[in-house]
Design goal:
Rossmann fold; four-stranded parallel sheet; 36% helix; binds 6-O-phosphono-beta-D-fructofuranose; single chain; 360 residues; seven-stranded mixed sheet; 2 domains; alpha/beta; elongated; 18% strand
């Protein structure tokens, strides 16, 4: 067998651990040849691929990023018009060219490591005749039918450490400190990171906040001489108000780039409070760096499971974690879906039980 491996979408800690596990498990389990496709699905259009031997994945377990490179703007089924594109300036559906390249390499199947956008594209390739197995990656932890994605634990650790640091300076100056996390339309990072870092206010995309309610919570703390630590997800917004956008990338599978809501909230709160309000956007620090031990193990388990699915000929499926067991689910059930924080989630209930503020 000859199997291609690619990493699509935004990078995250643990991608290299999956690449290593898939490569080693396919080599030793069934003597398969493994080829890395570079820069995600873009590599299938740009003809960028290289063999992956056991020696190529040696020592990469704990490395952040992805040795294959990634891309979160290329969907071969919808390539934007580009007059400078040497292959096809008209754009449109370039999947036949991508499939032809995969065939020219002699690939029997592809392991696609990525988030919901990557799984949606992977599903289309599977339906178009290239057998695919998916592996769920994203710091956002928002993929359907898996309780965990690798990368999430590492991101939560970064948020917790950042909040620990913001807490001490908040106390020194009696300030309200706002930390903005990633997570797009799901609040998992803000919720777990906020709890782990002892935030007093946690604001999620799933629960539009009332500026008055947040200000009231901060004022009560001011009266007691206490600083306030706020953890807000980038996709959170005040009730009836729009998302805070950093940019739009036309032609990208997900054209909206969120970011800056910490500063929106700062402007909303400052006129209502005596304390100084400061905002910090954690941004890509949450995606970079070495994976936690938990993510290294989860990524390795997912990689091994993906290799088993390939060996068993179970294509069109994504490795997933349910009740701490690796199982697989149809790509069709995952593609384009998002798993948001249910408002009756036990951790949301715990936040309420502690008397912390969720902005409602
Ligand atoms: O989906 C992962 C993620 O890190 C989101 O949390 C974030 O909104 C987005 O990617 C950022 O993407 P980019 O690196 O393209 O700005």
């Amino acid at each position: 067998m000859h199997i291609g491996v690619l990493t699509g979408g935004g990078d995250c800690p643990g991608l290299n651990a999956v690449i290593r596990a898939v490569t080693l498990a396919l080599h030793s389990g069934c003597g398969a040849k493994v080829t890395g496709i570079e820069r995600g699905f873009r590599g299938l259009l740009d003809h960028r691929a290289r063999p992956l031997l056991a020696s190529d994945v040696s020592g990469i377990l704990a490395q952040g990023g992805t040795v294959l490179g990634s891309d979160n703007t290329c969907d071969p089924f919808h390539v934007p018009h580009d007059p400078h594109d040497p292959h096809d300036p008209t754009g449109g559906d370039r999947s036949p060219a991508a499939l032809a390249f995969a065939r020219s390499l002699g690939l029997d199947a592809l392991v696609a490591i990525g988030g919901d956008g990557t799984m949606a594209i992977a599903h289309r390739f599977h339906e178009a005749g290239l057998p695919v197995v998916g592996v769920p990656k994203t710091i956002d932890n928002d993929l359907a039918h898996t309780e965990r994605t690798f990368g999430f634990d590492s991101a939560v650790a970064v948020v917790a450490e950042a909040l620990d640091r913001l807490a001490t300076t908040a106390r020194s100056h009696g300030r309200v400190m706002i930390a903005e996390t990633m997570g797009r339309y799901a609040g998992w990072i803000a919720l777990e990171g906020g709890v782990a870092g002892g935030a007093d206010v946690i604001l999620l995309p799933e629960l539009p906040y009332s500026v008055d309610a947040v200000a009231h919570h901060c004022r009560e703390r001011e009266k007691r001489g206490e600083p306030t630590l706020i953890c807000i997800a980038e996709g959170a917004h005040a009730a009836g108000q729009a998302l805070t956008l950093r940019a739009t990338l036309p032609g990208s599978p997900d054209p909206l780039r969120l970011g800056g809501v910490a500063h929106t909230l700062q402007q909303q709160l400052q006129p209502r409070l005596d304390s100084e309000v400061r905002a910090t956007v954690l941004g890509h620090t949450q995606r970079g760096g070495t994976p936690t031990a938990f993510d290294r193990v989860l990524a390795t388990r997912f990689g091994c499971h993906a290799a088993q699915l390939v060996k068993a000929g179970q294509f069109g499926r994504m490795a997933a974690l349910q009740s701490d067991s690796c199982i697989s689910v149809p790509l069709a059930d995952v593609a384009g879906r998002q798993r948001k924080v249910p408002l009756d989630h036990p951790l949301v209930q715990a936040v309420r039980a502690l008397g912390l503020c969720l902005g409602d």
